[in-house]
Amino acid sequence: MGRLFLIYLEGNKYTCKHCQTHLALSDDIISKSFHCRHGKAYLFDKVVNVTVGEKEERMMMTGMHTVVDIFCVGCGSIVGWKYEAAHEKSQKYKVGKFILERFKVLGPDGSNYSITQDTQMAGSDADDV
Questions:
Q1: For the chain, how many helices (H) and strands (E)?
Q2: Which secondary structure element, helix H or strand E, spans residue 44, and what is its range?
Q3: In whole angstroms, what separates CA 33 from the centre of its chain?
Q4: CA angle, residues 26, 67, 98, in degrees to nearest 5
Q5: HSE-up of 38 (CA within 13 Å, CB side)?
Q6: Sign of CA dihedral 93, 65, 9, 106
Q7: CA distances (Å), 54 to each of 67, 116, 121, 123, in order?
């Protein structure tokens, strides 16, 4: 394996909660109204320092999507997913965009999003716009 080169972000950033690898800037948030099985999730235009998994079809609240999970390059933790394709015309704006699950990242102020009792812990990831 070669040497790992990380991209360091300047400004208000989201980082991996396990290893603090920089992942995204708050300026690149498109929407904060997404949800996943652990609670809140944010839609980003750009994310750095991640690798992608295998493409798979997932049924979400807004229909069928082709997605790949994204993993932190620092520690290998899954931090969210990337939209590769949307089957519904109204959802095409998500293609090429990234979801970071708030439960799996630290906020710009170092805050950690905690799971509440009313958060659904089972079922597939879902998005809600």
A1: 0, 9
A2: strand 39-44
A3: 13
A4: 5
A5: 16
A6: positive
A7: 8, 30, 23, 20
Contact 21, 73 (CB under 8 A): yes
Per-domain residue ranges for the chain? 13-106
User: What are the structure tokens assigned to 12, written together?
Assistant: 């208000």
DSSP state for residue 19 in the 8-state scheme:
T
| Closest C-alpha among 10, 9, 20, 7 to residue 112 | 20
Q: Residue 78: helix, strand or coil by DSSP?
A: strand
Structure confidence by residue, pLDDT tens digits, 40-90: 999 999 999 999 999 999 998 889 999 999 999 999 999 999 999 999 999
Q: Does domain 13-106 have CATH number 2.170.150.20?
A: yes
Q: Which of 2, 6, 1, 3 is nearest to 72 (CA)?
A: 6
pLDDT in tens, 76-97: 999 999 999 999 999 999 999 9
